[in-house]
Amino acid sequence: MSFNSTQIIHELRADFEQLIELVTGPESQTATLNQMERSLFRRVLRLGFKLLQLFLCTRTHAESHAPQPGAHGTTVPYHSQKAVDYFSIFGKLEVEHAYFYQSGQPGESASAQRVESAGALLLGPADGECRIAGGG
Q: Which of 71, 54, 72 minimizes the C-alpha distance to 10?
């Protein structure tokens, strides 16, 4: 795992410990059910956001930059990382993915497979496993 994913995991563990403290600590003795539910909801959404960031971080880290099959038996080399906004239930995330390009051939995201649906993105070498439809 990269430094970034290690940092996210550390933050997630601390956040989870804070959740436990919230529902068992001194605050819980005076909070109403409504107050506790609202506080938990906000914190669980933030936790989900970080978990989704961790998922994307590990997928991006494992992504192959090996040349991809192109048109007519050619190969298309890795060019750069491209960013796409993804609107999740947890908030807006920026998703980076490998972009393959060679002059004279159309660029491809993550593999030579084209995704025709608007805003769609394929992540990682096992593209069929992580199809993400981007909004915006």
A: 54
Tokens describing residue 115:
């995704």
pTM of the predicted structure, to 2 decimals: 0.67
**Cβ atoms of 115 and 109 closer than 8 Å:** yes
CA distances from 23 to 11, 20, 50, 78, 121 (A): 19, 5, 21, 48, 39
pLDDT tens figures, 118-136? 233 433 343 334 444 444 3
Q: Which two tokens stand for residue 3?
A: 């430094």
Cβ atoms of 33 and 23 within 8 Å: the answer is: no
Instruction: With beta carbons less than 8 A apart as the criterion, state whether 95 and 85 touch.
Output: yes
